[in-house]
Each structure stands twice: as C-alpha cells, then as structure tokens.
Design a protein that fits this description.
There is one protein chain. This protein is an alpha/beta fold. It folds into three domains: 79 residues, NAD(P)-binding Rossmann-like Domain (Rossmann fold), CATH 3.40.50; 200 residues, UDP-N-acetylmuramoyl-L-alanine:D-glutamate ligase; 137 residues, Alpha-Beta Complex (Protein-Tyrosine Phosphatase, Chain A). Helices cover 34% and strands 21% of the residues. It has 17 helices and 19 strands. A nine-stranded mixed β-sheet has the order 6-7-5-8-9-10-11-12-13. A six-stranded mixed β-sheet has the order 14-15-19-16-17-18, with helices on both faces. A two-stranded parallel sheet has the order 1-2. Helix 6 crosses helix 11 and helix 16 packs across helix 17. The longest helix is centred in the C-terminal third of the chain and has 19 residues. It is globular, with a radius of gyration of 22 Å.
Length: 441
Amino acid sequence: MVGAARSGIAAAQLAAREGARVTLTETRDTFDAADGLRTQGIELEFGGHRPETLASADLIVTSPGVPTDQPVFDAARARGVETIGELEFAWRWLTGRVIAITGTKGKSTTTTLIGRMLDAAGKNVMVGGNIGTPLSAQVEHATPDTVHVVETSSFQLEATTTFHPWIAVWLNFADDHLDRHPTVAAYAAAKARIFANQDAKDWAVLNADDPAVLEQARGSSASRVMFSLEGGVRDGFVLDGDWIVRRTGSQVERLIPPGAVELTGRHMLNNVLAAAAVAHIAGVQPDAMVKALRGFHGLPHVMEPVADVRGVRFVNDSKATNVEAARRSIESFEGGVVAIVGGRYKGGDFRDLAEPLATRGRAVIAIGEAAPRVRKALAENVRVIDAPSMRDAVERGYEAARPDGVVLLAPACSSFDWFRDYAERGEVFKAEVERLRRREQ
C-alpha cells in the first residue's frame, strides 16, 4: 500500500483483515494512525517508497494522491507487479451496487444529495469515496442490498481496471488538475474510465448541456439518461418553469416543486437534476426526493453563506478549486461581487473569469502563488487588489465591496501554497470574517 492518507490507510486495513501481509509506505516520517496500524499487523515504511519493497510485492495499491508515473512504479511494473488504486482495490471486495459520480464541479454536492434521496426512500445506502468514508472502509459493513454512492475523482478512476458502477454520472467537464495530468485529453480519459466496464444493464447519467461529456461517453455500452439545465432534451430531466420534471416526449412527470431546493446559485440546480435522475432510476419516489432536499443548504465550503457585515455579504466557496467552478460561483450573483481568487495554480485560463467579472464584479482580491497570473489575466477588466494573507484578503475585500456587495471566496486554484486543503482555507476565511464582524459591531 502506497500513501498513508485516509484512502491508503483504509485499503491497508482491508487487506490486513483479508489475511494479506501488508506493508504501507509513506513519504512522511510518521503519522497519527501509525501505532494503531502496527497493532493490526501492518508493517510501516517511512521516508519514501523503496524500490525493493515495491518490486517484491504481489500487488501495489496506491492512494489517489500518489502519481504512478514515477520510476519506482515503472520498475515494479516491469517485474510484473500489478499497480491499482484504492477505488479499484475496494471494488474487488465489495458487495452491493455502486452509483459513481464524477465531474469537474459539483461531485460532492451531487453525491450527498443522491445519498439523502436514497436514504429518505428507505434504501440501505452508504456514501463516500472521494468524500467522507473511503470505499475500502465500507467493505466490512456492506451487504448485497447496500447501495454505495461514491464520489470518484480522476485520480481514483485512472487507476481502475475492473471498477463497474451500476449507475455512472458525469456532471460536467472543464480544464483542471493539469498539475497532475499531462494534458486535458489525459484528464478526460481518466474520468471516462467511469464507463469502461458498464454494459447494457447499467446506466450512464449525462449532462446534455456539456459537449465534452457527451463526446467522452460515446463509447459507453450503458443505457443513457440525460439531464439538462438549459432544457435542451426531449427525453430526460429538465426544468419546466420552476419544477424539476422528467420529460418523455410530450409527457411531463413533475418531481420536485418550486421552493424545495434551498441551495445558493442557479448552477446548483444542475446537481439537483442529476441527483433526481439517479434517484428515479433507483426507484425513489418524488416525495422522498423532496424530503431529502428540504433543509439542505449545501455542504461546508460550497457556496456557504458566512455572514452579513454592515450590508456586505460573505460567501465561502473554497471548494471552487478550478476556473470553471469559480466562474459559476461569480455568475450566481447579479452584481457587486468582490472575488478572492488565487492559490496554487493547477491549470485553466483566468481570462475565462473576465466576462462575468466585468458585468458583475467590483474587484478581485488576488492571493497566493497564482496572484501574478490573476493580475495579468484580469487587470484590464476589473480592479485587482493584491493581498498577502487571508486576513488582508477579507479586510480589502470588505472595503471594496462596501456598502452592499458580496465578498466571494472562489479561488479557482488549489490551496496547497498557504493551507493544508480547501477545507482549512475555508475555515480560515470564515474565522477572519467572524473577526471582522465582531470588530464592526
């Protein structure tokens, strides 16, 4: 097992429970769970992934965060050692059916919504994967009637060979993760593996408004179900007025009424449409869909309202870690937006934010390593203000947004220059907003 993040640890524990002799390798010198893993008979190697350990293995299982295009893995593969990811490893032991969700934006929200809808319908459901509980940790508690609702990233999917979801959902596609994938085409191909092993008894749920998704899904053998926020399908899940409906030719089945969706941003309806399509396939009735939506205001760090400070609203969308996600966040507001943008650059073109900022924005607060790129891309369209810390970003954003604007954390970048992850970035943002609120009382 390579990589001692939560997925790698869960895979190591699964392998040990099944009687394998397990070595878990990690680049760090130690980690919190080390002693507990040793008591489970798992051998630990710190300080890197030793070539001799990998080359002598019967199977290598990698955490999603570990790139396998490294000489140490090439050498092991040359000796005939199979290398797979944690998602693939878990699948080989799993009982029950899998609903897998991928996309550049909206995976976590859609995964959560599908889980809530199935739970409201009384299904035996477990939610996890790239969020929450790793799939390997679900194996022990799964039964034949369990439905696993699994968020799947490109990092997870690219290391699969037999992974076979019953329902595969592709929400959208845009440039992302080019700090890991060598090209946009490679990123797309990794995501398209979600369909690789499906057959005619399975389902592919596709965004009809996204040509890249439709192109990548052309080779799928699964039955297709379309959803469209723009209403551009004759058969599928669409908006009809303010209702979410299933349209079949001239027939319309109403599913979710106006007012049941309590999420911020029109683009969030895309996630609800996808969730409704999956739930319908799984036999969930409309009343259970509505029950799941009531009171659901979204996930932490996803268009999360934080505070109103003397007429200025603060919104935390720290999970908007790519340009397309940030664009959709900005477009959720009519005007007065001061967007906090930047971090560690991982692909995409910040100029794609120019048009929505020109019509809706008051300023951009540029942060992190990508700040010079942000300034170069956007300075001709909107005022750009540099901030050397999150505290400065909140303070300067507040001044630029007064008296009635919105300070929106929509970084379009990863967090790894200043923070451990997007969640820590969002928490620091919220803490700084709270500090400001108290001062301005």
